[in-house]
Amino acid sequence: MLAVSNVDPCLFYIFLPNELIVFIYIHVDHFLVLTSSEAWKNTFFTSFNSAYPSVDEGVLTDILGMRMTFRDAGLVRECRMSQHGLIRRMLEKFGMTDCNPALSPMEPKLSLTLADPQDATANVPYANLATEFMWLGRCTRPDILTAVCYLARFSHCHGATHLQHLLRVLRTVIYSSKLQKTVAVSTADGELVALSETARDIEHVVNLL
C-alpha cells in the first residue's frame, strides 16, 4: 500500500527493507517511478495505464531543466544531477563564456547598501538573474545559496557594484570543485563541518517518509 510523505504531498512510497522499495513523485501531468523491483514496475504501469493512458518514457534523463545521469558505483547506483544548460545560457547572456572562474560565490564579510536611485541600473535584468541563481542553488548548487539570498535583497534598487557581485556567483558555478560554506581552521574542524551538513541532509530525507 502506497503511503504519502510527511513533508511532500506529491511523494508516495512503499518501503519494505530487503523486500520492496518504491518512490512515486507526481509533478503536474508527469510522474517519476523509482523502484527496486522491475516486476513491480511493470505491474504498476499495466494497471495505471488501463485507467489513465500514459507513456513510459524509460530511464529518467531530464526533469525541470536538470540533467540526470546514472552509473554504478560499487554496491550502489549513483545518480548525478546537473544544470549545465541553464549555466551555459546564463554565461552566453552576459558574454562570460570565457571568463575566469571564481573560487567562492561571495567576498568574505561583504556588506552592501541600496544603490542611490540616480545610480540604479534599471535596464539590467538583475532580479531575473537572481531568480535563476535561486533555482540553480535550490536544485543542484546549494553552495551558492547564501550569496544569492543576500544579493537578492537588492533586486529593487541595485547598481553596478551589486551586479558585479552577482556576476561573481556566475563565475563560481563554472568552478568544478564544491567548497565548504564555512572556513575550517583545522582538519578536525573541517570534518565537523562536513558531518554537520551531512546530518542535515539525512534529517530531511528521513522526514520525507
Task: Provide key terms for this protein.
single chain, alpha+beta, three-stranded antiparallel sheet, elongated
Q: What does this entry look like structurally?
A:
This protein is α+β, with helices and mostly antiparallel strands and 209 residues long. The chain folds into two domains: 3-82, no CATH class; 84-172, no CATH class. The protein contains six helices and seven strands. β2 and β3 (20-27) form a beta hairpin. Mean pLDDT is 82; it is low at 176-187.
Number of domains: 2
Instruction: Outline the biggest β-sheet.
Output: 4 strands, antiparallel
Overall morphology: elongated
Beta percentage is 15-25%
Low-confidence stretches: 176-187
Task: Tell me the number of helical segments per DSSP (H or I, 4 or more residues long).
Answer: 6
Rg to the nearest angstrom? 21 Å
Helix content: 25-40%
The structural class is alpha+beta
Distance between the termini: 14 Å
Number of strands: 7
Mean pLDDT: 82
Biggest sheet strand order reads: 1-2-3-4
Written as H for each helix and E for each strand, in order along the chain, the element string is: EEEEHEEEHHHHH
